[in-house]
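Long-time lurker. I teach an intro course on protein structure, and each term I like to show students one example going from raw sequence to a predicted 3D structure in C-alpha cell notation. This year I'd like something fresh instead of my usual example. Would anyone be willing to generate the C-alpha cells for the chain below so I can use it in lecture? Attribution to the forum is fine with me.
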Amino acid sequence: MERNYPLHQLTTWKIGGPAEAVFWPSTIQDLLTVWQRAQKAQIPLWLIGRGSNLLISDEGLPGIVVITTALRSIQWEDYRVQVGAGYSLARLAQEVGERGWSGLEFARGIPGSVGGAVVMNAGAHGGEMAPLIQNVTVLWPNGTIRKLERAELKFAYRSCSLRGHAWVLETKLALSQGNCEQILKNMKENLVKRIANQPLEKPNAGSVFRNPPGDSAGRLIEAAGWKGKTIGEAQVSDKHANFIVNLGKASSRDVLALVEGIRNDVQSKYGITLQTEVEYLEAKS
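-- Reply from a regular --
Happy to contribute to a lecture. Here you go:
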C-alpha cells in the first residue's frame, strides 16, 4: 500500500489529485481483506481499473483506492473464458482473436479493464459486452461475494444494473467459432478507424457523452460550435467533438466546466440533454 499517491498517474486523462492510500490486490482474497478492514475502521474505499472513462477530483480521494490491474486471472475453456476484473480488455480481445474465437472484435482498441467494461457495457463498432456475458462474480457492499448469471443482470446502452451497487471481481464470457484470419483483419480495421477518428495522441478518457437515441453526441457538440474550444488546459478535440483532451495540465475543474457548458448549450439549442458516459469520483461532502 502506498500513501499520498498521485492519481493522475493512474488515469488515461492524466487528471486527479492524491489518494490518501492506494492498494493493488493480487487476489480476490487480498481485496476482500482490505475491504473488511476498511469497513471495520469506517474508511472510504474506491475501486478503479485501468483509469479510462474516469475523471478524478483535483482534491484527490480520501481513504483507500483499490486498483484492480493485478487481478488478471484467466481460464480458457471451449469458446469460454473466465477472466479477472483487472485484465486488459484490448489484450483479451487480441488473445481471443488469435484463437479464432469471435465476439470481441469491437474491443481491440478499448483501453479499459474487463471489470470496467462489464459495468459500463462497453462497446464500439456496433458490438458491446452484454451479449457475451455468461456470469459475473461480484462483491456486494455487505461483504458477500456472489456469482450472478446473465439473466440476473440488466444491460442497456453503456450501462449495467451492477453500476454503483457492486464491484465486479471476474466474469465468464461466451465466444463463438470464427475464422482467425478474418477476425484479426476486422480488429486491425477497427484500430485503423479508431486512430483516424479519435485524438489518441493526447490524454483523454474516451467519449465524454453517451449518444442520444438516433443521434450522435459528437455531431451535436460540433454543430453547437464547441469543437476546438478550451477552458484552462482542457480542450474539446478538434478531431472528434465528443472527446475532451488534456493539453498538458488540465484540471478536473476545467473538464467539468466544459462538460457543463456543452450540456447547457446543446440543451438550449436542440432540446437534447446529453448524459455523460465518463464517471466522476470525488470525496463525499
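Some talking points for your students: The chain is about 25% helix and 25% strand. The chain has a mean pLDDT of 96.
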